Amino acid sequence: MQRRRVLSGMRPTGRLHLGHLLGALDNWRRFQDEYECYFFVADWHALTSDYADPSHLREHTREIVLDWLSAGIDPDKAVLFIQSHVPEHAELNLLLSMITPLPWLERNPTYKEQLQEVTNKDLSTFGFLGYPVLQAADILIYQANFVPVGVDQLPHIELTREIARRFNHLYKRVFTIPEAKLTDSPKIPGTDGRKMSKSYNNCIYLSDPPETVQANVKPMVTDPARVRRTDPGNPEVCPVYDLHKIFTPQGERESYVVPGCRTAAIGCLDCKGVLLNHMLPVLSPIYERRVKLAEQAGEVEDILAAGTERARKVAGASLMEAKKAMGI
Questions:
Q1: pLDDT per position as a tens digit, 287-296
Q2: Distance CA 304, CA 306 (A)
Q3: Contact, 49 vs 123, CB < 8 A?
Q4: What are the structural domains of the chain?
């Protein structure tokens, strides 16, 4: 029996950090053993908002693929490719744009929100308004059964489902109706206590060597009530403890970290030392694999070329069916 398909992608915005690992790549690694997986670099999607300066697009593409491979995404188990290297995406995007009602795009909550909040870019473009159609093409062209997303992305998947239903109703059933596969995204604080984000310059990157990880964790913001070493603290308001919940075994948290913090039996540096004892064994192998991969000339390019060839076979067959259904 053919395994069901999962499709997911990432915009090439540069090196990936701990939030990407725990929020996406860990799930991808698990999915590749359960499903037929297609993972792509969404470089056309990057241009919908960052069209004014594409100078780092190729560099960032290579960086995130290195991070994928280092984090355990296996090109023998999953198809890895770059969106723009599969032109069938663009052609299906054009065909789907012919049947997508404009109000569907205009009421997209992300579109309205970003038009208001992003003030340093001109997003009043056809490409930005229509990116959900391109996203639908990305998904439908591989007949994906599942798309892993967080709760905030559910409206995008529902719009893809509506476009697929409209196409199948107008012509014939060509496209699989995809389902959102909700994934847990643990709270990942940055080194300043805010959400980990490149824009805040508070990230722990997968490409950071162990000494850099240590240097970034040691000055991390903790419970503001612990002004002095002897002040008791509250782990539940401490960003470092959010990371303990991910990396430190529950038994050690409950027997040592929590009571030690609440009674001031341990200081914040002691607490961070325990965290690093569990965090570094996870991150250091990723860093080491990345260094080796980066030294292998042409390895990433060969993997992407092979993935592109596999992706185009599937995408080409879907596009042909869609064109036939539309009388083209």
A1: 999 999 999 9
A2: 5
A3: yes
A4: 5-188+298-325 (3.40.50.620), 208-290 (1.10.240.10)
